[in-house]
Specification:
Number of helices: 5
Number of strands: 0
Helix content: over 70%
Strand content: under 5%
Distance between the termini: 25 Å
Order of helices and strands: HHHHH
Radius of gyration: 24 Å
Structural class: mainly alpha
Mean pLDDT: 80
Largest sheet: none
Low-confidence stretches: none
Length: about 130
């Protein structure tokens, strides 16, 4: 009951964070896609979506900087550093902070939430009783 409610409230609290993180993925993906299309050796195979997936893999730590080609390599390394610092370090620490604040807020009213869930279960089960037993 209340544990599921905690998860739902955390997801509601991080919705704006996920929007900003998605925009950062799209922005860095667009930059890498621009470099990739002007390069003679493609280091991202596929479409625009694959460049966003490339940034996602970069945030997870799965990156190979050997295949970036010969066009704008300095720019690729600068983007790599900016992407890892912004998305991995700053954004993920911000996520931890948001989740911690959500749990503090939820724990303050955990007793009330537990009683509310129990009361809703009791109210739901009273409908199952016959009228004479009520």
């Amino acid at each position: 009951g209340y544990l599921i409610r905690r998860i739902i409230e955390v997801i509601v609290d991080i919705r704006f964070f996920l929007l900003i993180l998605g925009l950062a993925f799209i922005a860095f993906g667009d930059a890498f896609n621009s470099i990739n299309t002007s390069n003679d050796v493609r280091f991202i195979s596929g479409s625009y979506f694959m460049s966003i997936f490339y940034v996602y893999r970069m945030v997870l730590g799965d990156i190979n900087m050997d295949d970036v080609g010969n066009v704008a390599t300095t720019y690729v390394y600068i983007l790599f550093i900016m992407c890892t610092v912004l998305n991995m370090v700053i954004m993920l620490n911000l996520l931890i902070t948001i989740i911690s604040d959500s749990f503090k807020k939820i724990n303050k009213k955990s007793d009330q939430t537990s009683y509310k869930e129990k009361a809703s279960l009791i109210a739901e089960n009273t409908r199952l009783l016959p009228f004479s037993a009520k």
